[in-house]
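Known limitations

Structure tokens in this collection are predictions and should be treated as such. Users comparing against experimental data should check residue numbering before alignment. To illustrate the layout, the record for Arsenite efflux ATP-binding protein ArsA is reproduced below. The input appears on top and the generated tokens appear beneath it.
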Amino acid sequence: MSARDTDWDGVRLHVVTGKGGAGKTTVAAALALALATGGRRVLLVEVEGRQGIAQLFDRPPLPYEERKVAIAPDGGEVCALAVDTEEALIEYLEMFYSLKRAGKAMTRLGVVDFVTTIAPGLRDVILTGKTSEAVRRRNKDGSFVYDAVVMDAPPTGRITKFLNVNEEISGLAKMGPIRNHADTVMRVVRSPETAVHFVTLLEEMPVQETLDGIRDLTEVGLPIGGVVVNMEHPPMLAADDLAAATAGTLDVEGVVRGLKASGLEHDAEETAAVLAAEAVAHARRTALQGRETERLSTLSQPRYVLPLLPDGMDLGGLYELAAALREQGAA
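Generated tokens:
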């Protein structure tokens, strides 16, 4: 296994959150690949039941078991686990109460949904507990089964309640296995071995949710990781052209002449008008990115930037994003 200095030396649990649509599942998968590069073994955990990991790695829906989904560059492997709440609850009842058969009966009767609805803190402690168990698990020789675990966590608006299970479970259990389990989870989540990373777009709402989420986690003492800016749109025009587009002073006649000189005389005026409108939209988007970048610059956390992939997201793109994260020191 190759040694490498990163921003997160010593971190074994990487929790990835972000506003819906910001690409947190994609970033979590890319981070898992980056962490596995060079001979490491990484577990990627999904807790929302969307099977997003399977789609990214072009796999059939994942069962409730850990399964290898990818080989990382220079060796190493990524395993994945899609946590099923019902199966995890049955496993939990078997582990702490020897009630496996009762758990299956509860599933058939719909009691599991009822219990996790009236006590959502129990659902979260089960999901986070499964992940923290993977972080602590060891081989017979004492080494860790996984060098790192990456959790594709719930969105930013719910991440504090999801991770702060001790607080959420306080009204449900003051002692006993549930309380002990919650305490064990929190020892992992609050430790220096955990980092919560935020994924954002350079847009107003995702950036605001990132700022709010970092503030909320800080207030309850949970460990903040880095900020991943996803799908950055690179400027395609020179600074003078961007300024002209923003001010509405683009030389549209010059564009018409250029089109005609290139042999595109048919509908040159209409084409130039469309291009000018696209330039204005691009200039506005670039200006927005600049403003939101300034807002993020107030944070002390490391920041990583991932480009917008022009051909869309596929397995090759995932490896490209993993390489970008490694180049910037995230893994």
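For this record: The longest strand covers residues 224-232. The two ends are 14 Å apart (CA to CA). Please report discrepancies through the issue tracker.
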